[in-house]
Amino acid sequence: MTTLVSSTDTLTRDALAVLQPGFLGTTAPDWLLRHIGEGLSSVGLFGRNIASPEQLAALTARLRAERDDVLVAIDEEGGDVTRLEVRHGSSFPGNYALGTVDDLDLTRDVARELGRRLAECGVNLNWAPSADVNSNRDNPVIGVRSFGADPELVARHTAAYVEGLQSAGVAACTKHFPGHGDTAVDSHHSMPRIDVGLDTLHARDLLPFRAAITAGSKSVMSAHILLPALDPNRPATLSPQILTGLLREELGFDGLIVTDGMEMQAIASTYGIERGSVLAIAAGADAICVGGGLADEETVLRLRDALVAAVRDGELPEERLVDAAARVRALADWTLRVRGASEPGAASQEGTAPGTAIGLVAARRALRVTGTVRPLDSAPYVAAFTPVANIAVGDETPWGVAAELGRLLPGTETGAYNGAGIAGTDTGALVAKVLAAADGRTIVAVVRDLHRHVWMSDALDALIAARPETVVVEMGVNEAEPRGVLHIATHGAARVCGLAAAEIIAGRTD
Q1: What pLDDT digit, counting tens, does each position of 93-107 carry?
Q2: What residues are labeled active site?
Q3: Model's pTM, two decimal places?
């Protein structure tokens, strides 16, 4: 049963109810449990909170011992952005791979299986899918997290993903409204601005969100982006015109509106998290996501007290806070109704043996292979040209093909090369290092978003000139022309994508 401390007044409970905070560690701290007892309705989980499916199930069970309807949220997109498998890489390809295959049943099945795993572990709200149309090929933060650059394709796969995920009893949170795909700036670092007209926004960026709403998405996440055509003054997360006027009234969305992380610099460095949270709720948001970077009790208290003070000072209408809290509780009630017999327990990790995992099936189908080469029968040298990871993906999750090739071809070695200090003649020095490390072995060059990185493109060209038999694996957005005697585009850098590519290289396909 839900328990609330009787001394906590209604206003304070409502302020706690709209927060989705994070915490440190793999067990719930006492302060978090105490605030759940006082009215906190949601908790956000990140990779740092997860060690194994069994540990995660025990953690969520402990949270529900305090409040049986607590929303346990996670940022589990699959593909490059994984929290369940943060230390090993995902067993599922991401959106770009699924969009490349363009099989709605496959997308629905992948999302359903991902949702099943989340539900087994006691997670009932997923901050996914990304419904962003990756219309800017140089986008530094969306990229392979998008189903693609075609609005119609993104729309139909967003709807299929929502249907699949929610059929497993996990609420979808379609993001990043009203669309983060046409940005050249990462909102983790500063405020992106999209200068396009209303016609473009409706025909391109809003199309997938309309599809998600029609498919019944239980929640939508706002983006910290400025769109002057909709609101010249405030970013979407803080804009009444966008959250209430557009999303609620024009598009008819009646579910939960969740903000993107409030500690992201697009908000924190301009408004501050307290002021930003008040403005977000006033604008029409119902839940404040915070905890990716600020994960302590002080943050919860600061935001709780800021919301309470704003109501008491007349800056935030109390009925708006009451409505927001009610929407949080309504989603929590839905999760209770659909939980049924699927109580959290010791969850198993789906295997990735050939032909057994829907994730591997999808990853194999997403491969695009150009050229031919005799399968390798001896251990190669893998040169991973490594760009700086964006914050959403993080740098703690391994990627590439070396580990999977090493299982198929024991003795495989690898080295990572980045663009630090690489310009002009320095490219030759980098390639010389690769050649020396390879020591005569076949080289597998792994790249990521080759079209976005001049240093990487130059180094790859120089490497192929020196060693024409080099195999190239592109694990990002596949915009550059294929090069190398064999070019494999995986359309994502998940572990399972690396496995599918390694099978091709080693000739171990079914």
Answers
A1: 999 999 999 999 999
A2: 188, 260
A3: 0.92
